[in-house]
Amino acid sequence: MRIGDLSRETGVSVASIKYYLREGLLPPGERTSPNQARYDEAHVRRLRLIRALVDVGGLSIAGTRTVLAAVEDPHVSLHDALGTAQAAVMTRTEPVEDDAAARAEQAVAALIERRGWITNERNPGWRTAVDVLATLERLGGEKVAGLLDVYAEAMEAVAPHEVEAVVVDEDRERSVERMVVGIVLGGALMTALRGMAEASVSAHRSGQAAADRAG
Amino acid sequence: MRIGDLSRETGVSVASIKYYLREGLLPPGERTSPNQARYDEAHVRRLRLIRALVDVGGLSIAGTRTVLAAVEDPHVSLHDALGTAQAAVMTRTEPVEDDAAARAEQAVAALIERRGWITNERNPGWRTAVDVLATLERLGGEKVAGLLDVYAEAMEAVAPHEVEAVVVDEDRERSVERMVVGIVLGGALMTALRGMAEASVSAHRSGQAAADRAG
User: Fold this and answer.
1) Quick one: which of A16, A96, A215, B168 has the fewest CB in 10 Å?
2) Are B69 and B174 part of one and the same domain?
């Protein structure tokens, strides 16, 4: 099919398709003339995946490129693809070296030890957790930082189910694709439910006026 | 202080400061000459807040603008500011009307009913949850969609603690600022811990070779 057909089939504008081609997220079509190319079902599938990751999952273009590379590379194991998908949904910052960062490092190391998690400093979550805790301390958010074990316990409850749900037994590329979708969209789903669960708690606290709005 | 001093004090480049001024995230300084302005401690504080939300929390510029407007507007209640902060961490998409979307609508309505949550369609989490569930169905991620109650239970466990931690008793602007920081960074912290908890589960499953890497 031509680019216009691909656009109609997927509901993605021609301008966006060209952007994804330029950014290397969508593989080029088969060139049929100097300014025309032919696309196939693999492009339709890839476009749907890109839109799910970017629009629904909230991934950056760079993050999407990284996870798609893991989908395509036959040497990336399922375990490593899981780490790549998780890194893509996390923020990354330049580390700041101050007392807050030093305390945050210790807090994360102690947490891992206390929970008995098999992980280490190379996991992108480690660095992100340190950055977030240090930033919370710098901005006076110690009460939220104090929820470290509350969050850890909730994620321990979720993790085995999520890993079970995303590790599927199909050909490698399909399996990695499903894992990436599961990790990215599972996170977006949890954030959506968090918003409603907290609105509900807040409505209880604020009384009926707020409950009527329940925003 | 001049813009150069503001940059040194906060570690944010002059170019970034000018960008935040143009985007309306940082209020203008007091003009002292046609091409110079004076900044004060409120600007230092605001810049640190912007960097925390954008770099560590992963908010978009538009999302940051919305939550900062809630911080500044004395008519926005704590309950509504909570909703604004939560909306900022969620993705928003153009709704698609198909069978998957209709089933997702029903699944979310049934979930809210089953959990007894005080919330409704106006909560941004409702729309996001519907979009994510429908997208998961379209991409073959039904197993992850099947974790709806696992996610809901985890968020129910977290929500009262989070609301308690972010609702503080100071002047309104300071309270809303802390709430926004808590919601945005608390979410980033949870995502980081999710990454480590899942790497740990995956390492157990994949055996020692993966555990050594523990990526």
Assistant:
1) A96
2) yes
